[in-house]
Amino acid sequence: MTLPQHDPAAALARSAIGAMFFSLFGGLWVAAWCVQTYGAHPLRLLPVAGITVLLFMLAWRQFRRHRAAHAAAEQSPQAKRVGRLFNVVNAGQWIAIFIVGNVLKNMGLQAWFIPAVILIVGLHFFPLAWLFKARRHLAIGMALCVWAIGYPLTLRHGPIHPVGCLGAGLILWVAALSAVRAGFAVQQSTLQAQK
Question: DSSP label at 40?
Fold first, then answer.
Protein backbone atom coordinates (compact mmCIF):
# COMPACT_ATOMS: atom_id res chain seq x y z
CA MET A 1 0.00 0.00 0.00
CA THR A 2 2.99 2.32 0.05
CA LEU A 3 4.93 3.79 -2.80
CA PRO A 4 8.02 1.90 -3.83
CA GLN A 5 11.13 3.82 -2.87
CA HIS A 6 13.60 2.05 -5.20
CA ASP A 7 13.68 4.88 -7.76
CA PRO A 8 15.61 7.74 -6.14
CA ALA A 9 14.62 10.23 -8.86
CA ALA A 10 10.89 9.58 -8.31
CA ALA A 11 11.42 9.85 -4.54
CA LEU A 12 13.17 13.19 -5.01
CA ALA A 13 10.27 14.43 -7.14
CA ARG A 14 7.73 13.36 -4.47
CA SER A 15 9.84 15.07 -1.81
CA ALA A 16 9.92 18.23 -3.92
CA ILE A 17 6.14 18.19 -4.31
CA GLY A 18 5.83 18.00 -0.52
CA ALA A 19 8.30 20.87 -0.16
CA MET A 20 6.22 23.01 -2.53
CA PHE A 21 3.12 22.45 -0.39
CA PHE A 22 5.05 23.04 2.84
CA SER A 23 6.45 26.32 1.52
CA LEU A 24 3.02 27.61 0.44
CA PHE A 25 1.12 26.57 3.57
CA GLY A 26 4.00 27.74 5.74
CA GLY A 27 3.82 31.10 4.00
CA LEU A 28 0.08 31.33 4.67
CA TRP A 29 0.59 30.61 8.38
CA VAL A 30 3.42 33.17 8.68
CA ALA A 31 1.35 35.73 6.74
CA ALA A 32 -1.54 35.16 9.18
CA TRP A 33 0.84 35.86 12.07
CA CYS A 34 2.16 38.97 10.32
CA VAL A 35 -1.36 40.35 9.71
CA GLN A 36 -2.44 39.60 13.30
CA THR A 37 0.70 41.22 14.69
CA TYR A 38 1.33 44.18 12.35
CA GLY A 39 -1.81 44.57 10.28
CA ALA A 40 -2.17 43.97 6.56
CA HIS A 41 0.72 46.18 5.46
CA PRO A 42 2.17 45.03 2.13
CA LEU A 43 5.72 45.96 3.11
CA ARG A 44 5.48 43.75 6.20
CA LEU A 45 4.18 40.87 4.10
CA LEU A 46 6.84 41.25 1.41
CA PRO A 47 9.55 39.27 3.27
CA VAL A 48 7.03 36.50 3.96
CA ALA A 49 6.15 36.34 0.27
CA GLY A 50 9.83 36.42 -0.68
CA ILE A 51 10.75 33.48 1.56
CA THR A 52 7.70 31.54 0.39
CA VAL A 53 8.56 32.08 -3.28
CA LEU A 54 12.23 31.21 -2.70
CA LEU A 55 11.40 27.92 -0.97
CA PHE A 56 8.78 27.10 -3.59
CA MET A 57 11.19 27.77 -6.46
CA LEU A 58 13.93 25.63 -4.89
CA ALA A 59 11.43 22.78 -4.58
CA TRP A 60 10.11 23.37 -8.12
CA ARG A 61 13.66 23.21 -9.47
CA GLN A 62 14.18 19.86 -7.76
CA PHE A 63 10.85 18.56 -9.05
CA ARG A 64 11.57 19.73 -12.60
CA ARG A 65 14.80 17.72 -12.69
CA HIS A 66 12.97 14.52 -11.76
CA ARG A 67 9.49 14.97 -13.20
CA ALA A 68 9.95 12.30 -15.87
CA ALA A 69 10.73 9.69 -13.21
CA HIS A 70 7.75 10.94 -11.20
CA ALA A 71 5.42 10.70 -14.19
CA ALA A 72 6.57 7.13 -14.88
CA ALA A 73 6.16 6.09 -11.23
CA GLU A 74 2.68 7.62 -11.03
CA GLN A 75 1.38 5.26 -13.71
CA SER A 76 1.61 2.19 -11.48
CA PRO A 77 -1.59 0.84 -9.87
CA GLN A 78 0.10 1.09 -6.49
CA ALA A 79 0.82 4.80 -6.98
CA LYS A 80 -2.76 5.42 -8.07
CA ARG A 81 -4.03 3.70 -4.93
CA VAL A 82 -1.69 5.78 -2.78
CA GLY A 83 -3.03 8.90 -4.53
CA ARG A 84 -6.59 7.94 -3.67
CA LEU A 85 -5.66 7.30 -0.03
CA PHE A 86 -3.84 10.64 0.08
CA ASN A 87 -7.03 12.35 -1.11
CA VAL A 88 -9.02 10.55 1.61
CA VAL A 89 -6.57 11.70 4.31
CA ASN A 90 -6.69 15.28 3.04
CA ALA A 91 -10.48 15.28 2.82
CA GLY A 92 -10.62 13.90 6.36
CA GLN A 93 -8.37 16.73 7.54
CA TRP A 94 -10.62 19.43 6.05
CA ILE A 95 -13.79 17.75 7.32
CA ALA A 96 -12.28 17.53 10.82
CA ILE A 97 -11.33 21.22 10.70
CA PHE A 98 -14.88 22.14 9.66
CA ILE A 99 -16.51 20.01 12.36
CA VAL A 100 -14.14 21.07 15.15
CA GLY A 101 -14.49 24.72 14.14
CA ASN A 102 -18.27 24.52 14.40
CA VAL A 103 -18.16 22.63 17.71
CA LEU A 104 -15.78 25.19 19.21
CA LYS A 105 -17.96 28.05 17.96
CA ASN A 106 -21.11 26.50 19.42
CA MET A 107 -19.35 25.96 22.74
CA GLY A 108 -18.09 29.56 22.82
CA LEU A 109 -14.48 28.41 22.51
CA GLN A 110 -13.59 30.13 19.23
CA ALA A 111 -10.23 31.18 20.69
CA TRP A 112 -9.12 27.55 20.47
CA PHE A 113 -9.74 27.30 16.71
CA ILE A 114 -6.14 28.04 15.61
CA PRO A 115 -4.55 25.53 18.02
CA ALA A 116 -7.17 22.97 16.96
CA VAL A 117 -6.37 23.50 13.27
CA ILE A 118 -2.64 23.18 13.94
CA LEU A 119 -3.28 19.96 15.88
CA ILE A 120 -5.47 18.49 13.13
CA VAL A 121 -2.91 19.39 10.47
CA GLY A 122 -0.21 17.79 12.63
CA LEU A 123 -2.25 14.63 13.11
CA HIS A 124 -2.88 14.29 9.38
CA PHE A 125 0.88 13.89 8.83
CA PHE A 126 0.94 10.55 10.69
CA PRO A 127 -1.04 8.56 8.10
CA LEU A 128 0.88 10.38 5.38
CA ALA A 129 4.16 9.22 6.94
CA TRP A 130 2.94 5.63 6.68
CA LEU A 131 1.49 6.14 3.22
CA PHE A 132 4.62 7.67 1.71
CA LYS A 133 7.15 5.93 3.97
CA ALA A 134 8.45 9.37 4.85
CA ARG A 135 9.93 9.74 8.33
CA ARG A 136 10.06 13.48 7.75
CA HIS A 137 6.26 13.51 7.96
CA LEU A 138 6.42 11.97 11.45
CA ALA A 139 8.73 14.76 12.60
CA ILE A 140 6.49 17.43 11.06
CA GLY A 141 3.39 15.91 12.62
CA MET A 142 5.02 15.65 16.05
CA ALA A 143 6.33 19.21 15.90
CA LEU A 144 2.92 20.61 14.91
CA CYS A 145 1.08 18.60 17.59
CA VAL A 146 3.51 19.61 20.33
CA TRP A 147 3.28 23.24 19.20
CA ALA A 148 -0.54 23.17 19.07
CA ILE A 149 -0.73 21.84 22.62
CA GLY A 150 2.23 23.73 24.05
CA TYR A 151 1.90 27.35 22.99
CA PRO A 152 -1.66 27.95 24.30
CA LEU A 153 -0.69 26.54 27.70
CA THR A 154 2.57 28.48 28.06
CA LEU A 155 1.91 31.96 26.61
CA ARG A 156 0.13 34.73 28.47
CA HIS A 157 -2.64 35.21 25.91
CA GLY A 158 -2.98 31.47 25.41
CA PRO A 159 -4.66 30.22 22.24
CA ILE A 160 -5.29 33.68 20.78
CA HIS A 161 -1.61 34.65 20.72
CA PRO A 162 -0.52 35.24 17.09
CA VAL A 163 2.69 33.30 17.66
CA GLY A 164 0.65 30.12 17.14
CA CYS A 165 0.44 30.89 13.43
CA LEU A 166 4.11 31.87 13.31
CA GLY A 167 5.22 28.59 14.89
CA ALA A 168 3.11 26.49 12.52
CA GLY A 169 4.46 28.39 9.52
CA LEU A 170 8.07 28.09 10.61
CA ILE A 171 7.67 24.35 11.17
CA LEU A 172 6.38 23.95 7.61
CA TRP A 173 9.10 26.18 6.18
CA VAL A 174 11.77 24.14 7.96
CA ALA A 175 10.15 20.99 6.55
CA ALA A 176 10.29 22.49 3.04
CA LEU A 177 13.92 23.45 3.47
CA SER A 178 14.73 20.00 4.85
CA ALA A 179 13.11 18.27 1.87
CA VAL A 180 14.97 20.47 -0.62
CA ARG A 181 18.25 20.06 1.26
CA ALA A 182 17.86 16.27 1.30
CA GLY A 183 17.28 16.33 -2.45
CA PHE A 184 20.33 18.51 -2.96
CA ALA A 185 22.45 16.12 -0.87
CA VAL A 186 21.30 13.14 -2.96
CA GLN A 187 22.10 15.01 -6.17
CA GLN A 188 25.54 15.97 -4.90
CA SER A 189 26.38 12.38 -3.89
CA THR A 190 25.24 11.17 -7.31
CA LEU A 191 27.48 13.70 -9.00
CA GLN A 192 30.43 12.69 -6.80
CA ALA A 193 29.85 9.02 -7.65
CA GLN A 194 29.85 9.80 -11.38
CA LYS A 195 33.24 11.57 -11.22
Answer: S
For 7, residues 6+ apart whose C-beta sits below 8 A from its C-beta are 69, 73
* Non-local CB neighbours of 123 within 8 Å, separated by 6+ positions: 141, 145
Whole-prediction pTM: 0.88
Closest Cα partner for 167 from 3, 33, 7, 74?
33
State the Cα torsion 152-155-158-159 to the nearest 10°. Answer: -50
Instruction: List the one residue out of 171, 67, 85, 184 whose CA is nearest residue 133.
Output: 85
The tens-digit pLDDT sequence of the chain (195 residues) is 344 445 788 888 888 999 999 999 999 999 999 999 999 889 999 999 999 999 999 999 999 998 888 888 888 888 889 989 999 999 999 999 999 999 999 999 999 999 999 999 999 999 999 998 888 999 999 999 999 999 999 998 899 999 999 999 999 999 999 989 876 666 655 545 555
Q: Are 5 and 156 in contact, with CB atoms under 8 Å apart?
A: no
What are the Cα distances from residue 120, in Å, to 133, 160, 170?
A: 20, 17, 17
- Rounded Cα distance between 4 and 167, Å, is 33
Q: What is d(CA 165, CA 18) in angstroms, rounded to the nearest whole number?
A: 20
Give Cα separations from 157 to 21, 105, 144, 161, 162 (angstroms).
Answer: 30, 19, 19, 5, 9
